């Protein structure tokens, strides 16, 4: 079996609208940190100089949002309303794990302009892929936006889904929709321009707001979808980190291809 990495890295060295802060304690600093913690928390004295080279373990501390790098959006990310169930929408730690290890399908949208595609455009992509998605397939949109990752243009120049396209996938039983772009919706500027032109609120974040009506998750900021050997015939694993009460969780998304 071949494993294809579909994830973008968390990298404090590249541009993000919410910058990543990555602080590193060296192994020597980690030894002193450990000794201080043992003394303060448990009353145990230990001289880190007794360790080989005075070193123990390095320690990384990151400050970032759950929407940095490849991540899975939970239903609670879309708002406090859940028309499909009593009570509030579920957080990422409460989602069923079997949603996130499923047969995958990649749809080629690389020829679509900046903005959002509709249901008709998705049906054309189904035809090129050879079939419609089956229920619970993980459907991923290859827009080519990942080539801009790490630059400001990554957050403004991509293709998303409109409301009709999102509803089409949900009608077919898809519960996890992924994209190699920053967002499953069109870029902010594009949506707001359309709203100012028409006054139609339905053009504002329709893919996300569809999650208030029906429960589903998004995988945003995928990468390397062009490395998949075919539109179907592989398994996707995108298990999200179990963060209690969170609207999203980071994921190391991969495709598993039998050979």
UniProtKB/TrEMBL annotation:
Any GO BP annotation: L-tryptophan catabolic process to kynurenine
Single Gene Ontology MF annotation: arylformamidase activity
Pfam families: Cyclase
Protein name per its UniProtKB record: Cyclase
Species per Swiss-Prot/TrEMBL record: Streptomyces humidus
Lineage: Bacteria, Bacillati, Actinomycetota, Actinomycetes, Kitasatosporales
